[in-house]
Amino acid sequence: MVGVPEEHLLGHAFHMYHLTSPDQTVSFEFQHNVCGRSIYAEGTIDAALFLAKKVRSKAGKHIYNMIDVLREGNMR
Description:
- The longest helix has 19 residues, at 38-56.
- Helix content is 34%, strand content 24%.
- It has a two-stranded antiparallel sheet with strand order 1-2.
- The chain is an alpha+beta fold.
- The protein starts with 11 loop residues before the first strand and ends with a helix.
- The protein is built from two helices and two strands, in the order E-E-H-H.
């Protein structure tokens, strides 16, 4: 239905987003498709390395997200 390649049926993330203005006069749609699991594994490692660096630098308590990891720019 959404076009996931058969070889990625066990590991994919196809997401569709639909935003509509309160008065229903404007609509915005977009999607992102990920085939495979390796990108998630790599992102997990990047996040762990990011957090380890924060702990070593004795950074103050803070809640981080993947945008913080991406902004730092140290992905492998």
